[in-house]
Design goal:
The complex is a heterodimer of chains A (about 120) and B (about 120). Chain A is an all-beta fold and about 120 residues long. Chain A contains no helices and twelve strands. Chain A is about 0% helix and about 50% strand. In chain A, the strands form three sheets. In chain A, strands 2, 5, 6, 10, 11 and 12 form a six-stranded mixed β-sheet that branches. A four-stranded antiparallel β-sheet of chain A has the order 3-9-8-7, with no helix packed on it. Chain A has a two-stranded antiparallel sheet with strand order 1-4. In chain A, a hairpin with a 6-residue loop joins strand 5 (about 30-40) and strand 6. Chain A is globular and about 40 Å long. Chain B has no helices and eleven strands. Chain B has strands at about 5, 10-15, 20-25, 30-35, 45-50, 55, 65, 75-80, 85-95, 105, 110-115. Chain B is globular. Classes of the chains: A mainly beta (about 120), B mainly beta (about 120).
Chain lengths: ~120, ~120
């Protein structure tokens, strides 16, 4: 069975510091996609960044980067220069090719999330 | 603006009653999804639909039902058979056939409380 583990239930970080949110996964599949979503207190899920299992470069989107270590099966999210508005729940998610049947979220498996609080 | 609208934001239901959660999207997406979120848990897939008049069970479909009569709409009914319905429900949509990297777009959720 596919499994995603986020080992940090909560984190407190000082504003302007860099943050690393951990995500490890367990799969024997070779083809998969890794996502990070942010969920502020308003409730909606906001897509942050994507990494494909065959991508050689780590993904970056503005202040977000993904530290992808395929051999270690980890996909940590790095937020540079954290801001107060970064306070939210963060979820790591995966999509596996053999469950993918054309829809945008088929086989999308989520971790339990990390609650990040940025302190001034 | 394009997006996904869920209503109502908060919903209270008496035990034994069915209740329907609304989800409408104007993104012209073929695929739509319902997820359930419990405190300290990730999202779990209830039902999904890839095309009008077709839908499939997700991981936790028992006690729920859906319909997909229009491309824009994917309502979820929480029936009295759902033993623990109090939760946060999220609707999502996505385009089809765009590859593994296709992101899903989410609504703002409905918080259902059984009283």
């Amino acid at each position: 069975a596919q499994k995603i583990t986020q080992t940090q239930p909560g984190m407190f970080v000082q504003e302007k510091e860099a943050v690393t949110l951990d995500c490890t996964y367990d799969t024997s599949d070779q083809s998969y996609g890794l996502f990070w979503y942010k969920q502020p207190s308003s409730g909606e899920m906001i897509f942050l960044i994507y990494q494909g299992s065959y991508d050689e470069q780590n993904a970056t989107e503005g202040r977000y980067s993904l530290n992808f270590q395929k051999a270690r099966k980890s996909a940590n999210l790095v937020i540079s220069a954290s801001q107060l508005g970064d306070s939210a729940m963060y979820f790591c998610a995966m999509r596996f090719a053999r469950y993918y049947s054309g829809g945008g979220a088929d086989g999308l498996t989520f971790g339990k999330g990390t609650h990040l609080i940025i302190q001034p | 603006d394009g997006g996904i609208t869920q209503s109502p934001k908060y919903l209270f239901r008496k035990e034994g009653q069915n209740v329907t959660l609304s989800c409408e999207q104007n993104l012209n997406h073929d695929a739509m999804y319902w997820y359930r979120q419990d405190p300290g848990q990730g999202l779990r897939l209830i039902y999904y639909s890839q095309i009008v008049n077709d839908f499939q069970k997700g991981d936790i479909a028992e006690g729920y039902s859906v319909s997909r009569e229009k491309k824009e709409s994917f309502p979820l009914t929480v029936t009295s058979a759902q033993k623990n319905p109090t939760a946060f429900y999220l609707c999502a949509s996505a385009p089809r056939d765009r590859g593994l990297n296709t992101e899903a777009f989410f609504g703002q959720g409905t918080r259902l409380t059984v009283v």
